[in-house]
Amino acid sequence: MQSQWRISIRAAAGTILALCVCMAAVVAFVEPAATQSLKSKKSELQKLKEQISKFEQRLKNTETREKNTLQQIDTYDQQTALIRNLIERLSRQVEENKRDIELAESSLVKAEERLRQLQGVYTRYIVSVYKRGTMHDTELLLSSRSLNQMLIRARYLKAITAKHRVEAEDIRQARRAIQRQKTILEEQLERQRQALQNKSSEEESLQRKVQKHKQLLARVRQDKEYEQTFIRRKEAAARKVASIISSLVEKSRKKIKKGSSEVASSEGVPKKSFKDKVTDLPTSIKHTKFGKKRGSLPWPVSGGKVITKFGEQRNAELNTVTINPGIDIRVKEGSSVKAIADGRVTSVDFIPGFGNILIIDHDEDFRSVYAHLNSFKVKINQKVKAGQVIAKSGETVAGPQIHFELWHSRTKQNPLHWLAR
Fold first, then answer.
1. Residue 150, SS3?
2. Does residue 144 sit in the same domain as residue 238?
3. pLDDT tens per residue across span 56-87
4. Which domain holds residue 338?
5. What confidence tens digit (pLDDT) does each residue in 284-299 have?
6. How far is Cα 232 from Cα 354, in angstroms, rounded to an integer?
7. For residues 290 and 378, what is the distance between their CA atoms, to the nearest angstrom?
8. Which of 53, 57, 317, 402 is deepest in the core (most CB within 10 A)?
9. Full-model pTM
10. Which residues fall within 8 angstroms of residue 81, CB to CB, at 6 or more apart?
């Protein structure tokens, strides 16, 4: 009987200890990670809200002035992209919170089930003690064969009683911690739902502004005086993109030079080895891995129509000649814009005349440019795969379209020679 009683007590104690360790690990893992993640996301959302407010103030300022229609259109483009980005992040955060809550609830259910099992063990133990009588422990001590055995049994009984109290309290604390984590997640989910609802209301308000935006576009399209302004803006935008590309090329080559110098220094090779390294770089496009894809690259949009080709463009009515550094593709507003090849996002910007733009580095000194976007699906320095959706197309003064360019180093390429026919 005594042997069975001791085995029962040890089994219960072992089970409780295992549960405490498990639950403590769950709480230690979930609570700090979740708290840190929430703080980071809250900071990102706050920055987006501040940017949206900044453009809201800019809109108010331009609306009070005259002849700032194009500036208003630019501001609408920038603000709309930010709001769409904000709403998308809020939606993702709500879904993440739902999954976190489900995990917390599952952990809590398991903990409660284990607690019920332990309570059953305690109940059976108490009943056993009651049946044996309150004098059982005293009898156990008095039945000792020696004083030494009595002292050992006394310490054993005392240790078990204290251990049970500690382990029971540990279980209660673990349960409270899990419940507290569940409450935190539920509160966060409610805040995000509220934020999403508020942002949806703001988007409805923005939609009314979008109607104003479309009215401004319609007015500008009918005003012939703006045509020369459009041309100058596009030329300025093209120069800006070329400047950005040149800066990226220079930055990339400095990085290569630095890496080559470090290798030369570590291996005791003269610094002129960098010159050799440069001459080893592809001198002809057709010799590069990317160059072998010429004529087979996927299009940045599906179902579009090329409305302005690469190169020289003549306007007989205005008697002007302009150079298009890429191609313009007519496509429905909100169409998915995809990366033409694997690469890394090196620039996310806004340029008057081109609107929201995105540049991807494809290595081997190749870069692709996507302009007239109404929202971004990727961020700076993010790696992307060929065919991955990177943005949504927008609407311009010339209608819904995207502008696409392809560069090798500082040289513009004709995209039609590279895209699949």
1. helix
2. no
3. 777 776 665 545 688 888 888 888 888 888 88
4. 226-251+288-418
5. 677 788 998 999 999 9
6. 12
7. 22
8. 402
9. 0.70
10. 356, 373, 374, 375, 376
